[in-house]
Amino acid sequence: MDLGSGLGHLSYSTLVHAGDTWAEMRDSLETFLPQVKARVSPDSAFGVSLRISADSAETLAADPAERRRLSDFLGAHDMYVYTVNAFPYGPFKGGTVMERVYEPDWTTDDRVEYTNAVADILAEISPAEISPSIQTAPLAFKPNVADAAYVQRFTTKLLRVVAHLVELEARTGRRVKLALEPEPACFLETTDETVDYFRDHIYTPNGIAELAHLAAVPISEAEGLMRRHLGVVFDIGHQSVGFEDIPRSLQKLVDAGIPIFKLQEAAALWVKELTLELVPQLRVFTDTIYLSQTTLRRDGVATRYLNLGEALDAFEADPGPAEMRTHFHVPVFLEELGPFVTTRFAVQEALQMHRRTPLSDHLEIETYTWDVLPAHLKTGDIVDYVTRELEFVRDELVG
To answer: How confident is the model at residue 94 (pLDDT cuts 50, 70, 90)?
Structure first.
């Protein structure tokens, strides 16, 4: 839904629903979206954040009738697609995901072809007045990045997609934006690393010249086209896990001229004072198919772990004073979770900043961990949960 006053479009990520194939995603859309719209946007158009897996992209790209069916469904229910999650390439529900979510990474042709296909679909199904965004993986799982040559390979592949977006707009008049999403344990993890990557590899004479060559445009136009089509997703929860100061991090991106194509409202689990007595209650959150990247901070020094269980093991071996944050998406409308708290305050700080000076025209709540939340945190069904999150964010912005 368009919040008005330049605050942008707001919805929730349909990554929360079953959607590994297009048949699953279509069924989820038709089942849940009308229910959510009826609650939060009954009298105005409702924006949709659509998950498109590689399997779904292949189906939609090959079947014009299926694309028309999707467009007809959206039109009949007064809905519109303004953003796509094309981060998970393959299955995301029902089985172990972990670091497989980053594969294939940006060194591969598979990632390029998948993203280009999603862009082509978006240009067709999104409204003419919308410049839709594609959320994508943060280049590579950090342990896999062996050397500078690896970085150059995924940079060139990334620029191939930017060149495709330039050509797509020239051909169709539709601007599609690609947004890299920094995440713990990835090549783009911190805001500082993200700024460094754009400064050292994208906004450089070589980077601009490479795009000019790939897109067959004058070099005098290439830098503007780079900024027009390539930016970032800022996931508040991801950056909170690393104990970043969220307003300061957002300002760093603004000062560096890196477009924030999507501002993602997500909260992480936060334990202000970790004790041995709390460890058993935290282990409930380790039963998940997803990575739960975790940061322990002692005396101001942060230590990162790939999973919550590993962090808890380390703490039990050395149970000194510590606080902890973990990449487990929890309801943004909750400040407390029993004996724990959340980083909801960081979401509120970012929204206050956005309310003063809009940072992005695309906002999104990412609630994909609903199915693996401990049972005591689930009140109502998924429609109730999503509705409360949307109402919370909307109220923070427009009152």
So the answer is: low
DSSP class of 42: T
Gap between the Cα atoms of 54 and 94, Å rounded: 17
Q: Which amino acid is at 373?
A: L
Assigned domain for 2 exists:
no
The CA distance from 339 to 269, in Å, is: 11
> Could you please report the per-residue DSSP string of 63-116?
-HHHHHHHHHHHHHTTEEEEEEE----S--SSS--GGGGG-S-TTSHHHHHHHH
Q: Does residue 243 lie within any of the structural domains? A: yes
Which residues span the domain enclosing 127? 9-270+328-398
Q: What are phi and psi of 124, to 5 degrees?
A: -90, -40
At 261-285, the pLDDT tens digits run 999 999 999 999 999 999 999 998 8
Contact between 333 and 261 under an 8 Å Cβ cutoff? The reply is no
In a domain, 202, yes or no: yes
**Structural contact between residues 59 and 21, judged by C-beta atoms closer than 8 angstroms:** yes
